[in-house]
Structure formats: C-alpha cells, structure tokens
Amino acid sequence: MRHLAAVLLLVAATGCLAQSDAEFVRMYEDAQRERPRTIASTARIAPKGEPGTPMIIHGRLLRADGRPAPNVIVFAYQTDVTGVYHRNGQQGWRLKGWVRTDANGRFEFQTIRPGSYPGTRNPAHVHLHAEGAKLQRRWLPELQFADDPLVHKGGAGVRPVVTRGGVQHVDLALTIREEGRF
C-alpha cells in the first residue's frame, strides 16, 4: 500500500494524472469558464495584496522545432503561501491566471511564491497548461524552484530564482510536446 501511495504521489507531482483524472478535468473546465475575454501577454495569478513574497515568472513557449509559439493561451494556477489552493468552503483553484503568448512566444505572470502542500515533502510549484487554435489543451512541466529544499534537482521545470528589489524572478522556457493532452 505504501508503494502505491508513493507512485500516486509521483504521478500527481509530474502531472501525468492530469491526462485521465476526471476531477482534474472538471476543475480545469470550471476554471476556464472564468477566463477573461481579452488576454494579454502579461497577467496576474495572485492579486495585489496577496500575502507572500512577490514573484514574476518570465516565460517563453516554443514549438517542438524550437521556434516561438505565438498566440497560445497559457493557463497557470498555484497554491497560496500556506500551500493550499482554495479557502474553506470554496472549490477549485483560487490563484490562477491566463496569458496569450506574444509573437516571440513570450509571456509573464506576476504572482507570489507558492507554498508547499501542508504536511508533505512536495516542492512548491506552479502548474502550467497550454492551448490554442491549432493546439489541443495539454499540461506543461510544472515550474519548481531550484532553491526549494524539497525539489529534486535536474527536473524539467526546475528553475533558478533571482531576487531583485524584494521581488523573485524566474526565467522559464518551455517546449510544447505531443504528450500531456487531456
């Protein structure tokens, strides 16, 4: 039983569960009903005044051939500083945002540093998904932070964090792959 729990935790942490988990798909579709009509290449995940260390995610999305992926919607969600997705009585993800990549595949999210799930050894992370006119929705590698003591070094989405003026900055380049559709 312990082995099964470890496998399920690993699957959930890598995002593979997103392909077949009906509850995840329902929450994703619920969140998309809140998607703004106009989406820019810069957006907020955590509202101004949200407790936590300010963070800016500077992203770039590339196609499998290495060229920029313009006009793609990137949806992100994360926990708050305490490691939870929603407040008591709420459903779904409270801290979420959408951007549309620019002509060079670039985007930016302003947020706070997320917390790790309470009582776990799961690293803090930001979930990312992409979809577009000719791109079926899919998960992207979750963003993890190289300075997090819980992170497994060398993972696909592990990125260094640089602090300037009290704001943490993370540069993130992601390549769209065929796997991860849901």
Name its key features.
182 residues; 2 helices; disordered N terminus; 5-stranded mixed β-sheet; mainly beta; single chain; 13% helix
Give a quick precis of the structure.
By secondary structure, the protein is mainly beta.
Please, could you describe this protein's structure?
Residues 1-19 have low confidence and may be disordered. The chain is mainly β and 182 residues long. It has helices at residues 2-14, 22-32; strands at residues 42-44, 54-62, 73-78, 95-100, 106-112, 125-132, 135-145, 158-159, 162-164, 167-175. The longest helix is centred in the first third of the chain and has 13 residues, at 2-14. The strands form two sheets. The chain has a five-stranded mixed beta sheet, with no helix packed on it. The protein has two helices and ten strands; from the N terminus they run ααββββββββββ.
Please give the structural blueprint:
Elements (H helix, E strand, L loop, with lengths): L1 H13 L7 H11 L9 E3 L9 E9 L10 E6 L16 E6 L5 E7 L12 E8 L2 E11 L12 E2 L2 E3 L2 E9 L7
Parallel strand pairs: 1-5, 2-10, 7-8
Antiparallel strand pairs: 2-5, 3-4, 3-6, 6-7, 9-10
